[in-house]
Amino acid sequence: MSAAAHLHRGWLRLLRSERGTSVIELSALSPMLLSMVLGLIDASLGFTAKLKLQQAATRSIEMATAGGIASPAFDSLADEAATASGVSRDNITVTKWLECNGVRQDSFDAICTSGQQYARYVSVTINSSYTPMLSSAMRAFGLPGTLSLVGKASVRMQ
Predict the structure, then answer these.
(1) Residue 120, phi-psi category: left (phi > 0), alpha (psi -120 to 50), beta (remainder)
(2) CA 102 to chain centre
(3) Higher pLDDT, 148 or 107
(4) Beta bridge partner(s), residue 95
């Protein structure tokens, strides 16, 4: 048998062989599987960061309700939220308002007219951002590379 025939027979045997097919299929699918796993991890980290902001806002509101409107803690809600969340004080918004018969008033310290039902509220909003591990891939698809996160909590004080 000639060397060419022997080589031809070897190629035919190799083409018919199913050995190693699983390895080839796995190598073709592994980039997609890896990107799915990294995407899930990234989403989990982003969700954890969002929960941290929400918990910090809730903690700040709890501090407000613990001492009431006249307590020093009520006046330092933004500082408490910044400490609890680990973000800058500039990213914290504390909103206080009064409602007389369900109508929002301009001043928190105003007094409703006699006979009106009143309620005082306070809200803490914490803004932050999250940069995913896969932000460059997100930008390649036209998505923003940084995501905005917000934690917010409100409570009726009186």
Answers:
(1) beta
(2) 32
(3) 148
(4) 123
CA distances from 19 to 22, 25, 27, 30 (A): 8, 12, 14, 19
pTM: 0.75
Contact 85, 53 (CB under 8 A): yes
One-letter identity of residue 114:
S
Q: Measured in whole angstroms, how far is the alpha carbon of residue 51 from the centre of its chain?
A: 7
Largest CA distance in the chain: 113
92-100, strands of its sheet edge to edge: 103-104, 92-100, 118-130, 147-156
Task: Give 77's contacts (C-beta < 8 A, 6+ positions apart).
Answer: 60, 61, 63, 64, 94, 122, 124
Q: What are phi and psi of 96, to 5 degrees?
A: -120, 135
User: Is a pLDDT exceeding 90 seen at residue 39?
Assistant: no
Compute, in degrees rounded to 10, the torsion defined by CA atoms 49, 51, 56, 58.
160
18 φ/ψ angles, rounded to the nearest 5 degrees:
-105, 5
Contact status, residue 11 vs residue 101, Cβ threshold 8 Å: no
Cβ atoms of 118 and 98 within 8 Å: the answer is: yes
The model's confidence at residue 151, banded by pLDDT at 50, 70 and 90, is: very high
